[in-house]
Amino acid sequence: MLSRQVAEKLAKYETPFYLYDIGLLDQTLESLMSIASKYNYKIHYAIKANYDARLLQIIRKHGVGIDCASGNEVRCAIEAGFDPKSIVYAGVGKRDKEIRYAIEQNILAINCESIEELDLVNELAAEAGKVVNIALRVNPDIDPKTNHCIDTGQADSKFGISYEEILDSVEHIRSLKNVDVIGMHIHIGSQIRELHVFENMCNKVNVIVENLTKLGFEIEFVDVGGGLGINYDMPENEPIPNFASVFSIIKQHLKVGNREVHFEFGRSIIGQCGELITKVLYNKTTATGRRLVIVDGSMTELIRPALYGSYHNIENITSTAESRLKYTIVGTACESTDVFDENVSLPITKRGDLLTIKSAGAYGMSMASRYNQHDLPAAVYSDEL
Length: 385
Hints:
It is a single chain. The longest helix is centred in the middle third of the chain and has 19 residues, at 196-214. A hairpin with an 8-residue loop joins strand 14 (324-330) and strand 15 (339-347). The chain folds into two domains: 2-16 and 272-384, Lyase, Ornithine Decarboxylase, Chain A, domain 1; 83-265, Alpha-Beta Barrel (TIM Barrel), CATH 3.20.20. It is an alpha/beta fold. The strands form two sheets. Strands 1, 11, 12, 13, 14, 15, 16 and 17 form an eight-stranded mixed beta sheet that branches. The chain contains 13 helices and 17 strands.
């Protein structure tokens, strides 16, 4: 990872901070867009993964659109210069003012997640004197074989409209005068590493699109979501995810005619491009003999381990010791669950050493908080070192 290569240069920065590998981000986007272009697939970046302004400018230059999950994310994308017609807006609980803003901006589509939301979009569009493009987010009832905290497509999920409810509401949906159903949206989960689930997804999508078409909906695009996972265990072995394999599966199994196919990738674009750099404050040993390394980062900078039990590879990038010990890495927040990992094998680690918490580009800074009045972490970019 980048941090070990530039460890000496990092000593001058106040920790904790996020280190972003701009070269790797460019390489990832070049790989993604090159492969996508072979199939004429449309790519959106899930801005919730990381909305850092510098990173967004790089993503925009590669011709990627944006997938939003809130009105402020739509605003962030617009202010970052993204074409409104490259923006899709999902989210299970859109506020009235957020919908109004999206309507004003003439984005590509609002992905509606309930019949009541459809009614509200229709009402607000009528107030604005517009007909608004929408996509129906359908809940496909698929197990994505991932952490249950981040699956989004099973029957009991809060996300999307059940296929059965759409069938029951066809006449009502078609009666709405100020919305135009031009798309179908599906999202089954995040951090998916068992790629066969995408085949299952395609089979469901094929049936849904065929039946929606028979019912009179003119579906112009199919948004199959994202969810492609990254290698948290050994990030150096897979710095760029295997986009080609996913696209190959989709090409082979998705049968939607000449309709545009859209993807929403977040973690797979930005995850491996970021590391959280944190400094060792103290060592101590508990009464049970557990060795603790207390670092100046915490769950306020990277909440995923505390929130999901997620694993991140941790490395001491400044120690020169040959002997290794097993440590539990804990943060400064006043919470017992503020633990980055346990039984981590590191070179003998001392106060002042720098640790890197890898694969932290996605859902790190974007989920940071000021709990305990902590400062938000700064960002350091590889091309500015």
